[in-house]
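call fold(seq) -> tokens
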Amino acid sequence: MFSFIFMFVIGWFPLLLLIFRANYILKHSDAYTMEQRFRLAKKFVRVCEVCTNTAPRIYGLENLPPDDAGGYLLIANHQGKYDALAVIRAMPSPIGVLMETHQSDKPGVKQVMSLLDGEHIDLAHPRQQLRIIRSMGEKVRDGARFLVFPEGGYDGNRNSIQNFHNGCFFSAYLARCPIVPVLLVDTHRSMNRNNIFARVHPEVHFLPPIPYDAYKDLSREETTQMVRRQLIDAMTVRLAARGETYLAWDKDAPMPPAARKAYEAELRAKAAKARESDI
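ret:
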């Protein structure tokens, strides 16, 4: 958490300048293309990365559908405040983001969301949710790309993928578009750690897209579970390559004692390894 606070302590001036610049562009939006707005949004991301000593590693850009192939939906697991920024940083083309209203109204976040023509969803109002999901589907059908986090929240998720809400997948059926699963690894470490001097390398993995024909005959819940399973399998393989074990657990229930013990042992081992590398 200290890294998140430190970001504002040392980055308040460039962030403030970017907020003023973004507000000016939004007031004169007709004079600026979406690509220009996207480049400014990436500057927000860059300031946040420098202030938190974050250097993301990006994989699978070749799996993204070409820009002239139409819009698509990006479905990612959720770990922390840096998640949307990580995907924006990785994307070569503009994307919109679906975000909860109380998160998207914060200074800086509000400007980035507006620059990218994102959607704000209120989880307390079902009718508003349906309207926003329909709006997102129509935008994707017209060629836009949207990032969605079906887990809804990220508290305590870390590298464990929680249950997905299937409502947002209605947009994919409405747009008849490909779904691109996006695996985020260690992104929670960017803004949720106390040691801001050690550089972190969160990972963004774009998995092969799922074409509309592969899920058009499935129910929304079946499609949701198919995407979630692909992300879990990819996370399992990625962690295994680092000598770690994927720990599946429900954050709404107490973590099993055996899993908690194994998880804490892994954290201690990683901390010891980091100390050795610093010597």
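The mean pLDDT is 89.
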